[in-house]
Amino acid sequence: MRVRKRKYGPGVPPPQERKPFRDVSRFLKETFGAKSYKVCVDGGFTCPNRDGTCGIGGCIFCGERGSGEFITEIGIRNQILTAMEKARVKHRAEKFLVYFQNFTNTYAPVDVLRAKYDSALADGDERIVGLAVGTRADCISEEIADLLAEYAEKYYVQVEIGLQTSDDETAKRINRGYPASRFTEAVQLLRKRRLNVVAHILPGLPGETKEHLIRTVDFLNQHDIQGLKIHSLYVLAGTRLAELYRAGEFEPITMAEYIDWAVYVLRHVSPQLVIHRLSGDCAREKLVAPEWILKKKEIHDQIIGTMEANGWKQGDLHPGTTCGESAKVNTEGTDR
Ligand code: SF4
How many whole angstroms separate alpha carbon 107 and alpha carbon 254? Predict the structure, then answer.
Protein backbone atom coordinates (compact mmCIF):
# COMPACT_ATOMS: atom_id res chain seq x y z
CA MET A 1 0.00 0.00 0.00
CA ARG A 2 1.38 3.39 -0.94
CA VAL A 3 0.97 5.97 1.81
CA ARG A 4 1.47 9.50 0.61
CA LYS A 5 0.89 12.89 2.11
CA ARG A 6 -1.22 15.13 -0.08
CA LYS A 7 0.60 17.95 -1.81
CA TYR A 8 -0.46 21.57 -1.82
CA GLY A 9 0.43 24.19 -4.35
CA PRO A 10 -0.60 25.82 -7.60
CA GLY A 11 -2.96 23.65 -9.56
CA VAL A 12 -3.37 21.14 -6.70
CA PRO A 13 -6.75 21.48 -5.00
CA PRO A 14 -6.64 20.90 -1.24
CA PRO A 15 -7.65 17.40 -0.10
CA GLN A 16 -11.07 18.44 1.17
CA GLU A 17 -12.02 19.38 -2.37
CA ARG A 18 -11.29 15.97 -3.85
CA LYS A 19 -12.49 13.47 -1.35
CA PRO A 20 -12.57 9.90 -2.62
CA PHE A 21 -15.63 9.20 -0.53
CA ARG A 22 -19.18 10.48 -0.19
CA ASP A 23 -18.53 13.38 2.09
CA VAL A 24 -21.26 14.70 4.37
CA SER A 25 -20.74 18.40 3.69
CA ARG A 26 -21.17 17.86 -0.02
CA PHE A 27 -24.16 15.61 0.58
CA LEU A 28 -25.84 18.28 2.74
CA LYS A 29 -25.10 21.01 0.23
CA GLU A 30 -26.62 18.95 -2.57
CA THR A 31 -29.61 17.96 -0.46
CA PHE A 32 -30.48 21.42 0.86
CA GLY A 33 -29.10 23.59 -1.93
CA ALA A 34 -26.90 25.64 0.39
CA LYS A 35 -23.99 25.30 2.73
CA SER A 36 -25.46 23.34 5.64
CA TYR A 37 -24.14 22.73 9.08
CA LYS A 38 -25.02 20.55 12.06
CA VAL A 39 -25.44 22.49 15.29
CA CYS A 40 -24.94 20.41 18.41
CA VAL A 41 -27.37 20.59 21.30
CA ASP A 42 -27.30 19.20 24.82
CA GLY A 43 -30.97 18.36 25.41
CA GLY A 44 -30.46 17.54 29.09
CA PHE A 45 -30.84 13.79 28.64
CA THR A 46 -29.13 11.04 30.57
CA CYS A 47 -28.36 7.48 29.55
CA PRO A 48 -29.80 4.13 30.69
CA ASN A 49 -26.25 2.87 30.82
CA ARG A 50 -25.49 5.40 33.53
CA ASP A 51 -28.61 5.66 35.64
CA GLY A 52 -28.77 1.95 36.45
CA THR A 53 -31.57 1.02 34.02
CA CYS A 54 -29.25 -1.14 31.96
CA GLY A 55 -25.90 -0.32 33.51
CA ILE A 56 -23.89 1.94 35.78
CA GLY A 57 -20.87 3.99 34.84
CA GLY A 58 -21.60 4.05 31.13
CA CYS A 59 -19.42 2.89 28.26
CA ILE A 60 -15.81 2.86 29.42
CA PHE A 61 -14.73 5.60 27.01
CA CYS A 62 -17.66 7.95 27.63
CA GLY A 63 -16.95 11.30 29.28
CA GLU A 64 -19.01 13.02 31.93
CA ARG A 65 -20.87 15.02 29.25
CA GLY A 66 -21.78 11.93 27.23
CA SER A 67 -20.04 13.39 24.16
CA GLY A 68 -20.57 17.02 23.07
CA GLU A 69 -17.71 18.22 25.29
CA PHE A 70 -17.62 21.58 23.50
CA ILE A 71 -21.21 22.67 24.21
CA THR A 72 -21.38 25.42 26.79
CA GLU A 73 -24.62 27.40 26.36
CA ILE A 74 -27.62 26.58 28.52
CA GLY A 75 -31.13 26.07 27.13
CA ILE A 76 -31.99 24.33 23.89
CA ARG A 77 -33.02 27.43 21.91
CA ASN A 78 -30.05 29.42 23.23
CA GLN A 79 -27.64 26.71 22.27
CA ILE A 80 -29.08 26.52 18.77
CA LEU A 81 -29.12 30.26 18.15
CA THR A 82 -25.57 30.67 19.43
CA ALA A 83 -24.27 27.70 17.42
CA MET A 84 -26.07 28.82 14.24
CA GLU A 85 -24.60 32.29 14.47
CA LYS A 86 -21.10 30.90 14.98
CA ALA A 87 -21.49 28.54 12.02
CA ARG A 88 -22.88 31.35 9.88
CA VAL A 89 -19.89 33.59 10.61
CA LYS A 90 -17.17 30.95 10.64
CA HIS A 91 -18.38 28.54 7.96
CA ARG A 92 -20.80 30.69 5.93
CA ALA A 93 -23.52 28.15 6.72
CA GLU A 94 -27.04 28.99 5.58
CA LYS A 95 -29.04 25.90 6.53
CA PHE A 96 -28.84 23.94 9.75
CA LEU A 97 -29.55 20.54 11.21
CA VAL A 98 -30.15 20.44 14.94
CA TYR A 99 -28.14 17.59 16.44
CA PHE A 100 -29.13 16.31 19.88
CA GLN A 101 -25.75 14.93 20.79
CA ASN A 102 -25.13 14.42 24.49
CA PHE A 103 -26.03 11.13 26.12
CA THR A 104 -29.09 9.22 24.81
CA ASN A 105 -31.47 11.54 23.04
CA THR A 106 -34.42 9.17 22.76
CA TYR A 107 -34.26 8.12 26.41
CA ALA A 108 -37.39 9.81 27.82
CA PRO A 109 -41.17 9.44 27.55
CA VAL A 110 -42.52 10.40 24.14
CA ASP A 111 -44.17 13.60 25.41
CA VAL A 112 -40.86 14.77 26.90
CA LEU A 113 -39.05 13.95 23.66
CA ARG A 114 -41.67 15.82 21.68
CA ALA A 115 -41.33 18.90 23.90
CA LYS A 116 -37.56 18.95 23.54
CA TYR A 117 -37.54 18.37 19.79
CA ASP A 118 -40.30 20.98 19.36
CA SER A 119 -38.39 23.55 21.35
CA ALA A 120 -35.43 23.01 19.03
CA LEU A 121 -37.43 23.21 15.82
CA ALA A 122 -40.19 25.62 16.76
CA ASP A 123 -40.72 29.26 15.84
CA GLY A 124 -40.71 28.59 12.12
CA ASP A 125 -37.02 29.20 11.64
CA GLU A 126 -36.71 28.42 7.94
CA ARG A 127 -32.98 27.96 8.26
CA ILE A 128 -33.45 24.73 10.23
CA VAL A 129 -33.93 21.87 7.79
CA GLY A 130 -33.13 18.78 9.79
CA LEU A 131 -33.19 16.95 13.08
CA ALA A 132 -30.40 14.56 14.04
CA VAL A 133 -30.64 12.47 17.18
CA GLY A 134 -27.79 10.53 18.77
CA THR A 135 -28.93 7.47 20.67
CA ARG A 136 -28.48 3.83 21.65
CA ALA A 137 -29.92 0.91 19.71
CA ASP A 138 -31.88 -0.26 22.76
CA CYS A 139 -33.59 3.12 23.08
CA ILE A 140 -35.53 2.88 19.81
CA SER A 141 -39.08 1.59 20.15
CA GLU A 142 -42.09 1.57 17.78
CA GLU A 143 -43.44 4.60 19.66
CA ILE A 144 -40.23 6.57 19.36
CA ALA A 145 -39.76 5.62 15.72
CA ASP A 146 -43.33 6.85 15.10
CA LEU A 147 -42.54 10.15 16.79
CA LEU A 148 -39.40 10.64 14.70
CA ALA A 149 -41.36 9.75 11.57
CA GLU A 150 -43.74 12.65 12.35
CA TYR A 151 -40.81 15.06 12.20
CA ALA A 152 -39.65 13.43 8.98
CA GLU A 153 -42.80 14.77 7.31
CA LYS A 154 -41.30 18.24 7.55
CA TYR A 155 -37.60 17.79 8.26
CA TYR A 156 -34.70 15.65 7.19
CA VAL A 157 -34.41 13.23 10.14
CA GLN A 158 -31.29 11.28 10.95
CA VAL A 159 -30.89 8.83 13.83
CA GLU A 160 -27.33 8.19 14.92
CA ILE A 161 -26.62 4.94 16.71
CA GLY A 162 -23.39 4.32 18.60
CA LEU A 163 -22.77 0.72 17.61
CA GLN A 164 -18.97 1.03 18.03
CA THR A 165 -18.41 -2.67 17.25
CA SER A 166 -20.40 -5.71 16.15
CA ASP A 167 -18.54 -7.94 18.59
CA ASP A 168 -20.61 -8.88 21.62
CA GLU A 169 -17.57 -9.79 23.72
CA THR A 170 -16.09 -6.34 23.14
CA ALA A 171 -19.51 -4.84 23.86
CA LYS A 172 -19.38 -6.45 27.31
CA ARG A 173 -15.79 -5.34 27.81
CA ILE A 174 -16.65 -1.72 27.06
CA ASN A 175 -19.91 -1.95 29.04
CA ARG A 176 -22.12 -0.98 26.09
CA GLY A 177 -25.05 -2.78 27.65
CA TYR A 178 -26.71 -4.42 24.65
CA PRO A 179 -25.85 -7.04 22.03
CA ALA A 180 -25.41 -6.25 18.34
CA SER A 181 -28.80 -7.83 17.60
CA ARG A 182 -30.42 -4.74 19.16
CA PHE A 183 -28.78 -2.63 16.48
CA THR A 184 -30.41 -4.82 13.83
CA GLU A 185 -33.81 -4.38 15.49
CA ALA A 186 -33.38 -0.62 15.77
CA VAL A 187 -32.39 -0.28 12.12
CA GLN A 188 -35.46 -2.29 11.11
CA LEU A 189 -37.76 -0.08 13.18
CA LEU A 190 -36.29 3.09 11.72
CA ARG A 191 -36.09 1.92 8.12
CA LYS A 192 -39.69 0.71 8.21
CA ARG A 193 -40.43 4.44 8.48
CA ARG A 194 -37.72 5.41 5.98
CA LEU A 195 -35.76 7.33 8.61
CA ASN A 196 -32.07 7.87 7.90
CA VAL A 197 -29.69 5.83 10.04
CA VAL A 198 -26.08 6.77 10.74
CA ALA A 199 -23.93 4.17 12.52
CA HIS A 200 -20.96 5.14 14.67
CA ILE A 201 -17.98 2.82 14.92
CA LEU A 202 -14.85 3.02 17.08
CA PRO A 203 -11.84 1.18 15.67
CA GLY A 204 -9.22 0.21 18.27
CA LEU A 205 -11.44 -0.64 21.23
CA PRO A 206 -9.77 -2.63 24.04
CA GLY A 207 -9.05 -6.18 22.91
CA GLU A 208 -9.92 -5.47 19.28
CA THR A 209 -7.70 -5.99 16.26
CA LYS A 210 -8.23 -5.19 12.61
CA GLU A 211 -10.03 -8.56 12.34
CA HIS A 212 -12.73 -7.26 14.66
CA LEU A 213 -13.09 -4.16 12.52
CA ILE A 214 -13.41 -6.30 9.40
CA ARG A 215 -16.25 -8.22 11.05
CA THR A 216 -17.91 -4.95 12.09
CA VAL A 217 -17.78 -3.71 8.51
CA ASP A 218 -19.26 -7.03 7.29
CA PHE A 219 -22.01 -6.60 9.87
CA LEU A 220 -22.76 -3.04 8.79
CA ASN A 221 -22.91 -4.16 5.18
CA GLN A 222 -25.83 -6.40 6.11
CA HIS A 223 -27.86 -3.40 7.28
CA ASP A 224 -29.81 -0.75 5.45
CA ILE A 225 -27.99 2.27 6.84
CA GLN A 226 -27.44 5.60 5.13
CA GLY A 227 -24.42 7.03 6.89
CA LEU A 228 -21.31 6.22 8.88
CA LYS A 229 -19.16 7.94 11.46
CA ILE A 230 -15.71 6.50 12.02
CA HIS A 231 -14.37 7.81 15.30
CA SER A 232 -10.77 7.50 16.35
CA LEU A 233 -10.89 6.20 19.92
CA TYR A 234 -9.19 8.36 22.50
CA VAL A 235 -8.73 8.18 26.24
CA LEU A 236 -10.64 10.91 28.00
CA ALA A 237 -9.72 12.00 31.53
CA GLY A 238 -12.00 10.65 34.22
CA THR A 239 -13.16 7.58 32.30
CA ARG A 240 -12.75 3.89 33.06
CA LEU A 241 -10.68 3.71 29.87
CA ALA A 242 -8.26 6.22 31.39
CA GLU A 243 -7.85 3.93 34.40
CA LEU A 244 -7.12 0.98 32.11
CA TYR A 245 -4.63 3.05 30.16
CA ARG A 246 -2.81 4.19 33.28
CA ALA A 247 -2.69 0.62 34.55
CA GLY A 248 -1.08 -0.46 31.28
CA GLU A 249 -4.10 -2.55 30.32
CA PHE A 250 -5.03 -0.57 27.24
CA GLU A 251 -2.83 0.75 24.49
CA PRO A 252 -4.38 2.97 21.78
CA ILE A 253 -3.68 2.07 18.18
CA THR A 254 -1.14 4.20 16.32
CA MET A 255 -2.05 6.88 13.82
CA ALA A 256 -0.63 4.71 10.99
CA GLU A 257 -2.90 1.84 12.07
CA TYR A 258 -5.87 4.16 12.23
CA ILE A 259 -5.22 5.48 8.72
CA ASP A 260 -4.92 1.92 7.40
CA TRP A 261 -8.07 0.79 9.22
CA ALA A 262 -10.13 3.80 8.19
CA VAL A 263 -9.12 3.29 4.57
CA TYR A 264 -10.15 -0.36 4.89
CA VAL A 265 -13.58 0.72 6.14
CA LEU A 266 -14.07 3.27 3.37
CA ARG A 267 -13.18 0.79 0.65
CA HIS A 268 -15.45 -1.94 1.98
CA VAL A 269 -18.65 -0.03 2.79
CA SER A 270 -21.26 0.84 0.23
CA PRO A 271 -20.39 3.76 -2.07
CA GLN A 272 -23.84 5.12 -1.24
CA LEU A 273 -23.12 5.61 2.46
CA VAL A 274 -22.58 9.21 3.48
CA ILE A 275 -19.37 9.54 5.49
CA HIS A 276 -20.04 11.89 8.38
CA ARG A 277 -16.81 11.61 10.26
CA LEU A 278 -13.29 10.26 9.94
CA SER A 279 -11.82 11.16 13.32
CA GLY A 280 -12.70 11.87 16.92
CA ASP A 281 -13.02 15.29 18.50
CA CYS A 282 -11.47 15.71 21.91
CA ALA A 283 -10.87 18.86 23.95
CA ARG A 284 -7.11 19.07 24.37
CA GLU A 285 -7.27 19.61 28.13
CA LYS A 286 -9.29 16.42 28.63
CA LEU A 287 -7.21 14.18 26.40
CA VAL A 288 -5.07 11.54 28.09
CA ALA A 289 -3.93 9.69 24.95
CA PRO A 290 -3.08 9.36 22.12
CA GLU A 291 -1.70 12.76 21.13
CA TRP A 292 -2.15 12.11 17.42
CA ILE A 293 -5.91 12.33 17.85
CA LEU A 294 -5.53 16.13 17.87
CA LYS A 295 -4.04 16.15 14.36
CA LYS A 296 -7.40 16.04 12.65
CA LYS A 297 -6.27 17.66 9.46
CA GLU A 298 -3.29 15.34 9.12
CA ILE A 299 -5.51 12.32 9.74
CA HIS A 300 -7.92 13.43 7.00
CA ASP A 301 -5.10 14.33 4.62
CA GLN A 302 -3.41 10.97 5.07
CA ILE A 303 -6.62 9.03 4.54
CA ILE A 304 -7.42 10.99 1.41
CA GLY A 305 -3.80 10.99 0.23
CA THR A 306 -3.47 7.23 0.68
CA MET A 307 -6.64 6.53 -1.25
CA GLU A 308 -5.72 8.95 -3.98
CA ALA A 309 -2.14 7.66 -4.34
CA ASN A 310 -3.46 4.15 -4.81
CA GLY A 311 -6.45 5.07 -7.00
CA TRP A 312 -8.91 3.82 -4.38
CA LYS A 313 -12.45 5.05 -3.79
CA GLN A 314 -15.17 4.46 -1.27
CA GLY A 315 -16.85 1.13 -1.89
CA ASP A 316 -14.42 -0.17 -4.48
CA LEU A 317 -14.16 -3.40 -2.44
CA HIS A 318 -17.75 -3.41 -1.23
CA PRO A 319 -19.25 -6.84 -1.93
CA GLY A 320 -22.20 -5.34 -3.82
CA THR A 321 -20.12 -2.94 -5.92
CA THR A 322 -19.14 -3.75 -9.46
CA CYS A 323 -16.25 -2.10 -11.27
CA GLY A 324 -16.87 1.57 -12.01
CA GLU A 325 -19.79 1.83 -9.61
CA SER A 326 -17.94 3.19 -6.60
CA ALA A 327 -18.40 6.68 -5.25
CA LYS A 328 -17.46 9.47 -7.56
CA VAL A 329 -14.55 11.56 -6.36
CA ASN A 330 -15.66 15.06 -5.55
CA THR A 331 -14.31 17.52 -7.99
CA GLU A 332 -15.64 20.70 -6.45
CA GLY A 333 -14.96 22.33 -3.12
CA THR A 334 -16.98 21.46 -0.05
CA ASP A 335 -16.03 24.58 1.90
CA ARG A 336 -15.31 22.61 4.99
S1 SF4 B 1 -24.50 4.86 25.44
FE2 SF4 B 1 -23.56 6.78 24.81
S3 SF4 B 1 -24.06 8.25 26.43
FE4 SF4 B 1 -24.49 6.20 27.23
S5 SF4 B 1 -22.61 5.66 28.32
FE6 SF4 B 1 -22.43 4.82 26.25
S7 SF4 B 1 -21.36 6.42 25.05
FE8 SF4 B 1 -22.09 7.35 26.96
Answer: 35
